[in-house]
Amino acid sequence: MGGFGVTFKAMFKKRLTEQYPEEKKPTAPRFHGRHQLNRHPDGLEKCIGCELCAWACPADAIYVEGADNTEEERYSPGERYGRVYQINYLRCILCGLCVEACPTRALTMTNEYELADRTRASLIFTKEELLAGLQDGMVDSPHAIYPGADEQTYYRGEVKAAAPGTERQVARSKGEQPPADEDDALAAASRLRDPNGDAGDSGSGVRA
Ligand code: SF4
Ligand code: SF4
């Protein structure tokens, strides 16, 4: 009889059932969700490929490979950048220790919690998936450093946007092809250097 009393009381209480996924409730502001790799205000990446986040991770969920920036292909203001960056969400326990270890505030966590999927591979997030989107004033990496700036300037927050005229560099290390007009320019330059190169096509037919 006592048991029925509990049932009757519960019938008149406010329902706590959540209608997820039709209705999604906002999380607490500091909820630990999916990670994000942040950018400087001009679009260069904050990650320097130091691997401290990977060493701090208790679940061995992060894989990082750093590489050197060059003036022709620059991803971050300093010497190094994160060439490969992966987080395995099958292992991650969303503890946030990696965020604490990061010396450049490159790595933070968002409030996104929908991290289920049907395959293992799709839960290993790559750098391209983790890298923050572009905001106003940003140019996608790789591109040149702000003129006159150095990495200290960037970390003091003195670079507020990409310098006027900043253009994205061609990422040779990722196998991106040069734009078509660059191909045309190279072909024209090679014809100038070797005027006989196209003699057969031009139909001049004059041979010694
Ligand atoms: S949140 Fe914790 S478990 Fe997940 S990657 Fe960072 S350190 Fe590893
Ligand atoms: S996210 Fe931070 S700690 Fe991890 S490799 Fe990049 S700079 Fe280093």
From TrEMBL:
Its main location: membrane. Residues 161-208 are annotated as: Disordered. Belongs to the complex I 23 kDa subunit family. It comes from the Bacteria. Transmembrane segments: none annotated. One of its GO terms (cellular component) is plasma membrane. It is found in: Cell membrane. InterPro entries: 4Fe4S_Fe-S-bd (IPR017896), 4Fe4S_Fe_S_CS (IPR017900), NADH_quinone_OxRdtase_chainI (IPR010226). Gene3D superfamilies: 3.30.70.3270. It catalyses: a quinone + NADH + 5 H(+)(in) = a quinol + NAD(+) + 4 H(+)(out). NCBIfam families: NuoI, PRK05888.1-3. Its cofactor is [4Fe-4S] cluster. GO terms for biological process: aerobic respiration. Residues 37-67, 83-112 form the 4Fe-4S ferredoxin-type domain. Binds 2 [4Fe-4S] clusters per subunit. [4Fe-4S] cluster 2 binds at C57, C92, C95, C98. NDH-1 shuttles electrons from NADH, via FMN and iron-sulfur (Fe-S) centers, to quinones in the respiratory chain. The immediate electron acceptor for the enzyme in this species is believed to be ubiquinone. Couples the redox reaction to proton translocation (for every two electrons transferred, four hydrogen ions are translocated across the cytoplasmic membrane), and thus conserves the redox energy in a proton gradient. This is NADH-quinone oxidoreductase subunit I. Its EC number is 7.1.1.-. Keywords: 4Fe-4S, Cell membrane, Iron, Iron-sulfur, Membrane, Metal-binding, NAD, Quinone, Repeat, Translocase, Ubiquinone. It is a peripheral membrane protein. The gene is nuoI. The keyword Aminoacyl-tRNA synthetase does not apply.
